[in-house]
Amino acid sequence: MSIERIVIVGTGHAGTQLAASLRQDGYAGAIALIGDETDLPYHKPPLSKAFLKGGEAELQLLRPEEFYVKNRVELMLGRRVAAIGPAEHRVALDDGSTIAYDRLVLATGARPRLPALPGIDLGGVVALRNRADGLMLRAATVGAEDVVVIGGGFIGMELAATFAALGRKVTVIEAAPRILGRAVAPQISEHLAASAVAAGVRLLTATTLRGLEGDQGRVSHVVTANGERIAAQVVVVGIGVLPNQELAEAAGIACANGIVVDRSFRTSHPDIFAIGDVASYEHWMAARVLRLESVQNATDQARAVAKSLLGMPADYRAVPWFWSDQGDAKLQMVGLSFDADEHVVRGESGAGSFSVFHYRAGRLLAIDSINRAADHMLGRKMLAAGFSPPPAAVRDLSVDLRALAEAALAERAAPVIAGA
Amino acid sequence: MTTITFIQPDGAAREVVAKPGESGMQAATRAGVEGIIGECGGSCMCATCHVEVAPQDIGRLPPRDDIEQEMLESILTDVPEGSRLCCQIKLVPELDGLVLHVVEIAG
């Protein structure tokens, strides 16, 4: 049966790239791209940095408006999908209208999780996810002196650096013993923590909160579990996200910390697919079921699902990579470091330019880099090829890792001559 | 006002007027210049905004920083003098008339 209409729900990085990839791969049928935000699809990462710092609150668009016209993408902005009817092959919008599809792709993303704390609904408390949150944060910051960031994860540490650069007094509150604890090696946490402190940020790790206090409906303080009252006219929450899976769940599609998909991004319903932050899948590198929240995951999955929608072979084996700009420190990560049993440092952490190579049983799993883009880029190549440099070579800065990897990969690619 | 020109591999030229504070990548993607993607939004992470600066303009640009240099070295065997990731080129008024050649990238 030919596919005449593909409906994509979600106008983030994943949904928008999918529209582009379908056209690049030669799909000629209809594409509808539906999202509840009213803005043209835009880059999310700058919201925690340039968007807050800039003179004007300008969005950086993913594609210019003419792209959607030229590529015949029916952009349905400011529209919320209310329900999916898998049997009818239709989605219902909140205005009561319905749209038919042959294939449906859910790229609904995730939303910030909020802590169950007294006062979390006070004015001046913001969780940053989209432009509206960014505008609220910009407005709340005007005239504010004290900013408290709840959660020392990527977005929290980026925001802390941004607000410190804007001259605000910033306190980061993290429940775990170190920042970014679940994501990066201890050496990386230490370096980024030291950079934040040097920029004037107060870091309270191993600290939980009792609640938030307000004055006339606006936040004035956060109170730690041991009773310290910290002034705050702005509180930003960054303690993780929840996948937007409710639409799928209501339609009877299997969900478990996200919408469950197979290697071709198909959900438990054969004509419905899911990609991006919301998709839960068994990752080829880690042999475990996970969701990844990143631009790379969104766009690479979009390219892969386009192929699988069009019946082309699509074995998804992208190497995950991620970045976080925290003030002057550029953190770049490649691979997945779960279950690593050996962590090898290349470079000098004191010099602010080093990488941590993660191994399991001698196999390279991931590299976290601070201001060492060459290691990061080489990591993408080595992990894609399944090449693990010996730890001794990684430790030794006099070894040219790139030459080592290229020689090994060239040897592997060399033709085997029969009888030779 | 800063007007710059992007030239495609087939020779087609496109003039773009930059907004204050924009990077080469931002101006190009706003105008829909083919071949400049800027997938990472300008964080010098994806190398999808690769250009060759016209020889007469190379000296007008500030040098690459370490990250841009390492990114270019990672995608090219030899990095020509004019190779840049244009998300790192801030289009200040002094760069009016800049000519950038879009480099074809695989994939």
From TrEMBL, chain A:
Residues 321-405 form the Reductase C-terminal domain. InterPro entries: FAD-oxidoreductase/Apoptosis, FAD/NAD-bd_sf, FAD/NAD-binding_dom, FAD/NAD-linked_Rdtase_dimer_sf, Reductase_C. Keywords: Dioxygenase, FAD, Flavoprotein, Oxidoreductase. Pfam families: Pyr_redox_2, Reductase_C. Gene3D superfamilies: 3.30.390.30, FAD/NAD(P)-binding domain (3.50.50.60). Its cofactor is FAD. It comes from the Bacteria. The keyword Glycosyltransferase does not apply. This is 3-phenylpropionate/trans-cinnamate dioxygenase ferredoxin reductase subunit. It comes from Kaistia dalseonensis. The lineage of its organism: Bacteria, Pseudomonadati, Pseudomonadota, Alphaproteobacteria, Hyphomicrobiales.
UniProtKB/TrEMBL annotation, chain B:
Residues 2-106 form the 2Fe-2S ferredoxin-type domain. Coiled coil: none annotated. PROSITE patterns: 2FE2S_FER_2, ADX. Pfam families: Fer2 (PF00111). CDD domains: fer2. Its cofactor is [2Fe-2S] cluster. InterPro entries: 2Fe-2S_ferredoxin-like_sf (IPR036010), 2Fe-2S_ferredoxin-type (IPR001041), Adrenodoxin-like (IPR001055), Adrenodoxin_Fe-S_BS (IPR018298), Beta-grasp_dom_sf (IPR012675). This is 2Fe-2S ferredoxin. Keywords: 2Fe-2S, Iron, Iron-sulfur, Metal-binding. Belongs to the adrenodoxin/putidaredoxin family.
